[in-house]
Amino acid sequence: MNSTQLKYKIATEPWEFEQVHALNYRTFTEEIPQHETNQERKRIDRFNQENTYIIGLDGDMVVAMIAIRSVRPFSLDEKIEGLDDYLPPHDAKCEIRLLAVEKAYRDSFVFFRLAEALIQYCLENGFDMAVISGVLRQQKLYKHMGFVAFGPLTGSGDAQFQPMYVTEELFQRKARAFQRIFLQSQDSISFLPGPVPMADQVKRAMGETACSHRAPAFLDHLHQLRGRLKSLTHAEHVQIMLGTGTLGNDAVAAQLRTLTEQGLILVNGEFGSRLTDHAQRAGLHFNTVEIPWGESFDYEHILAEAEACDAAWIWAVHSETSTGVLQDINQLKYITKKTNSKLVLDCCSSLGNVPLDLRDVFLATAGSGKGVASYAGLAFVFYHHTIEISNSIPRYLDLGLYHTYDSTPFTHSSNLIKALSAAIDQWEDAKLLQRVSELTDILIKHCREKGLTLLADAAYAPGIVTIVLPKEQRADIVGRELARKGCLISCNSSYLIERNWVQISVMGHHEEKDLERVTDALAVLIGKKETVV
User: Fold this and answer.
1) Mean pLDDT score across all residues of the chain
2) Do residues 62 and 19 make contact, with C-beta atoms less than 8 angstroms apart?
3) pLDDT for res 530
4) Cis omega before residue 470 (within 30°)?
5) Rounded mean pLDDT, 42-69
6) Strand partners, 233
7) Biological process (GO) annotations (predicted)?
8) Concatenated DSSP letters for 23-47?
9) Please, which residues have CB within 8 angstroms of residue 46's CB and are 6 or more apart in sequence?
10) What is the CATH number that goes with domain 200-428?
11) pLDDT of residue 91
């Protein structure tokens, strides 16, 4: 018996219903003494004509089931007076009944798969809540699945039940925790844009004994690492901060505030939008050029806008992670030279994935967790000028302090520094810059051959591809189904769920053969391919 290989569906065939009635009898007559025995050893539920049965099949054997109905009165209405008074606000609910699983198949995976199929059915049919009479001895299991108890117990003896309800939000919260536990035991391949697949040498370096950020050995290591980053980007200076790209962008916003001049921010995705949030929080004065997500900028239009608002600086995302669109850095450099303004770039998804020449770039940010294939937790700020300490900037964001103290004004992490150094070694040895570009082209080719709809209609950013799902699919559910097939893709970010997109990333260390696997599995899930390879 392999419970992870069960097929879950709505019962439609006569033989499936026959087995449903038999499982109903074994569970609610023989195991839970709720009904009278009979010679046929079958029990047809009194609401059978109104029930929809979701079943788990092992071959042609029904080994798990759950029934759903929406016709009032519910069986709970008969047991609890004023049922609706016990429940939180909702629009439409259904009742779940007859949750039953053969003893040999009772593990958390099967119960969660049934619950997930239930939630999907509810969403597709407009229900935002489901109620159930949960067997008293299985309360721990129900709670693990997201159910909340309410009202008095019903039944008697060994057939006592606790009324419970579940919503999508409650179940999803539990499902994410379950998924993390389940995937720890699976041999999965990550196509996430962070964390990305890392070399074993990086993992070993991360586990080495930590040392003080004041120790001469650490300072020497940090100095060498900064030199390598400067060499990779042609930057005069780089500061390494303990944080993520978000911290780096906050530090940049604080520096732009010292200019006290008008700026221009370019937005064509989630991370461009976040730049405007950084700027607003820092009290910057700026205009925006905003275009639909997934499109490329008209650089003549940007030039005209920069001239019109007399922009002293232009802030843009080089590689827009949320859409997979790469901006033309040379065009941006041309515009800032033409307008005598300063170019500021978020390079979090471009460092390590595309050639990055930061000459003529005033400030640029990146991080350790994407293209260079190390652990997240280090933010980089690149620049070419001397930055003085400013008492008007919060200490942790003051690049002047980092400039003065060679990236160590505060506590640092020797483990993250060692891991990043090892990652750059592996990044160079494996020629990941060329590799990521090649794999992105292959990934796009597979997607097109399998009928998957790609978002971007312009230059694709090496490292990540955004796929538009059919309206009848849900990004988070598709992502979880792929995870069970051993492929982790980006699907849970709010901006992806809102637009019904998923993303496949080839940042870090990947194999070409795995691209066939993930695109095949995705094509099957969304109905672009008939059989699983």
Assistant:
1) 90
2) yes
3) 46
4) no
5) 93
6) none
7) glycine biosynthetic process, by transamination of glyoxylate
8) HHHIIIIIIS--S---TT-----TT
9) none
10) 3.40.640.10
11) 86
Domain 3-184 grouped into CATH 3.40.630.30: yes
145's tokens: 């699945």
Query: Is the pLDDT score of 472 beyond 70?
Result: yes
pLDDT for position 146: 82
Give the count of beta carbons closer than 10 Å to the beta carbon of residue 270. Answer: 19
User: Do the Cβ atoms of 309 and 301 come closer than 8 Å?
Assistant: no
The answer to whether 423 touches 374, Cβ cutoff 8 Å, is yes
Q: Determine the distance from the C-alpha atom of residue 421 to the mean position of all C-alpha atoms in its chain, rounded to a whole number.
A: 27
Q: How far is the C-alpha of 481 from the C-alpha of 517, rounded, in Å?
A: 14
All residues at 6 or more sequence positions from 254 whose CB lies less than 8 Å from its CB, including other chains: 282, 390, 393, 394, 397, 398, 399
Residues 6+ apart with CB under 8 A from 17: 11, 53
CATH domain 189-197+431-525 topology: Aspartate Aminotransferase, domain 1 (3.90.1150)
Q: Which amino acid is at 327?
A: Q
Quote the percentage of the chain above a pLDDT of 70: 94
- What lies within 8 Å, CB to CB, of 91 at 6+ separation is 126, 128
Q: What is the DSSP string of 308-341?
A: HTT-SEEEEESEETTTTEE--HHHHHHHHHHHT-
Owner of token pair 């569970």 = 27
Q: What is the pLDDT of residue 5?
A: 66
Under 8 Å CB-to-CB from 507, ≥6 apart: which residues?
193, 194, 196, 349, 352, 353, 370, 371, 373, 436, 463, 464
Quickly tell me which residue has 């307008």 as its tokens: 339
Q: Where are the domains of the chain?
A: 3-184, 189-197+431-525, 200-428
- The CA R_g of the chain, rounded to the nearest whole Å, is 28
Residue owning tokens 């060329």: 434
pLDDT score, position 175: 62
Q: Is pLDDT above 50 for 531?
A: no
- Distance, in Å, from the CA atom of 447 to the CA atom of 458, rounded to the nearest integer, reads 16
For 335-388, how does the pLDDT look when each residue is reduced to its tens digit (9 = 90+)?
999 999 999 999 999 999 999 999 999 999 999 999 999 999 999 999 999 999
C-alpha torsion sign, points 510, 515, 517, 522: positive
Beta bridge partners of 166: 130
Write out the DSSP string of 507-523.
-SS--HHHHHHHHHHHH
Lowest mean pLDDT across 109-118, 246-255, 386-395, 424-433? 109-118
User: What value does the mean pLDDT take over residues 499-528?
Assistant: 91
Specify whether the CB–CB gap between 66 and 114 falls below 8 A.
Answer: yes
pLDDT of residue 485: 81
Specify the residue for token string 């003085």.
388
Whether residue 152 is preceded by a cis peptide bond, meaning omega within 30 degrees of 0, is no
